Amino acid sequence: MLNYRNFIDGDWRASAGPTVAVDDPSTGEVIGSIPDSGAAEVDSAVTAARRAFTEGPWARMTPGDRAQILRDLAASLESRFDELVDGLVADTGCSIRMCPMLQAGAPLANLRDFAEMAPLLEKPVSYPIQSAPGFGQWELHREPVGVVAGFIPYNFPLFIAVWKAAPALLAGNTVVLKPSPLTPYGVEAFAAAAKEIGLPDGVVNVVHGDREAGTSLVDHPGVDLVTFTGSTAVGKQVMSSAARTAKEVILEMGGKSPALVLPDANAELAVRGTLFSSMMHGGQACVATTRMLVPDSRYDEFLDLLERRANELVVGPAADYATDVGPVVSQAQREKIEKYVSAAVEGGARVIAGGDRPAGVPEGGHYVSPTVLADLGEDNVAAREEIFGPVLSVLRYSDVDDGVRMANDTEYGLASAVWSSDVERARGVAARLQSGLTWINDVAQADVARTPFAGKKQSGVGTELGPDGLFGYTKVKSLYTALDENLDARAYGAVGSGWE
Ligand code: NAD
């Protein structure tokens, strides 16, 4: 049993309050508990982070020194890589074939990638500002924002903790992380690495809990910047709460990303890619292309192939190497997905694969069969809302303009894919899609840390990752230095200025 504690001011602190059980999605067995923290624990963490920011060495170190600490964090996590993978498999239900790369390896690579960006923060910022003759000199300095509160969703806990903490720390901020109550392990591992390498106390803090911990953290006047990844509904609440104290916000939210199949697409590639994108990690990826738009001319051919390939996917426990699609995170998430499928069918959808609970899997686990829904109207709930489970919705379109219109007819704008044998044509179509990330003839590619995530519409506010994402954790100070002490040359001293 892992009985988690909050990590505040460089130490684990027991909490006398209530706890919440954590289960293994593959079996439903309780494997730990977290403290259901509230305002008092949040206040301790923010106070520690504020003290570390204003009094500690962190904000005054060079970006190069802080980059070395990111590398040390990566090395510490890497030194117990197998343990990290086992913990994340049990915690997230991510299959063992994907987990080492996706949940554990990529965050380590990202820590090192962010470390490489340190020169971007060296002062002063180098773009020339030419002062008029007789005036002084301007320099622009990038400074840390202060105390950063990072909200982590359940699906990629260590990965997204790194996406937030690495750029925030590199820029000289201190952080308070709030993991999902469903998957606390990855953020705990990050705190343990911080402790092991001797990160100064209070620079990284972790407060476990759910809504109360989350709202207390957003509301806390000691927080300067809120960086949130999670659902659009909660993101909007966070944005509105943060407005009360005029905090900076970065939001990475939900999606209903289209896979637009052009009439000349390679069927096997498009079908395999879209099934991978929409079913991988139990369909719990924000950038999953869960809306496949297929031209009338190829609709039946695609449905036949989708049915065949979806039925070949192996559902099973995350730790089993044969598993293609593992469980979803919780019983509540499974029930939510099942309700979506029922509502979609009531709304006219036809189930061509899945739509039920799979057989031959551990009884207590939270499994959903890979499900493909066809014949959906554009208003069908499964064509519009993010389901966050292994459910692919297939819609048909008449001509490419119609396909582009349908692809963009959504409140989301996170990702999209275009499938075509004519790359130039696909590039033309990609330019018309309203999403922050678009793939041509592939899915799930991201040279993460260097590739910005900037979801459009209700998928995002601000940018995460890449240099733009890093700069989001800084504020520019414009510094003016007069080059002489000549009062006569000043607006408040010159003859005729009225101030002399
Ligand atoms: P969620 O919105 O339920 O929770 C996200 C975090 O916010 C959790 O730590 C949660 O405990 C906390 N929280 C919940 N209510 C809160 C409140 N009222 N105030 C403050 N904090 C609160 O999201 P989830 O179910 O954990 O994750 C799935 C969602 O995350 C999906 O919508 C998915 O698309 C999205 N996501 C987006 C990206 C991206 O980069 N755009 C990446 C991963 C996941």
Account of the protein in words:
The longest helix is centred in the first third of the chain and has 18 residues, at about 100-115. This protein folds into two domains: about 1-255 and about 460-480, 3-Layer(aba) Sandwich (Aldehyde Dehydrogenase, Chain A, domain 1), CATH 3.40.605; about 260-450, Aldehyde Dehydrogenase, Chain A, domain 2 (3-Layer(aba) Sandwich). It is of the alpha/beta class and about 500 residues long. The protein contains 15 helices and 22 strands. Helices cover about 35% and strands about 20% of the residues. The chain has helices spanning about 40-55, 65-80, 80-90, 100-115, 155-170, 185-195, 210-220, 230-245, 265-285, 300-310, 330-345, 380-385, 400-410, 425-430, 465-470, and strands at about 1-5, 5-10, 10-15, 20-25, 30-35, 135-145, 145-150, 175-180, 205, 225-230, 250, 260, 290-295, 350-355, 370-375, 390-395, 410-415, 415-420, 435-440, 455, 460, 475-480. The protein is globular, with a radius of gyration of 25 Å. The strands form six sheets. The protein has a seven-stranded mixed sheet, with helices on both faces. The model has no long low-confidence stretch (mean pLDDT about 95). The site of nicotinamide-adenine-dinucleotide has 31 residues, from α7 and α8.
In order across it, which strands form the biggest sheet? 14-15-16-13-12-18-19
The main pleated sheet reads as:
7 strands, mixed
Give the CATH class of the largest domain: Alpha Beta
Q: How many helices?
A: 15
Residue fraction in strands: 15-25%
SS elements, strand count: 22
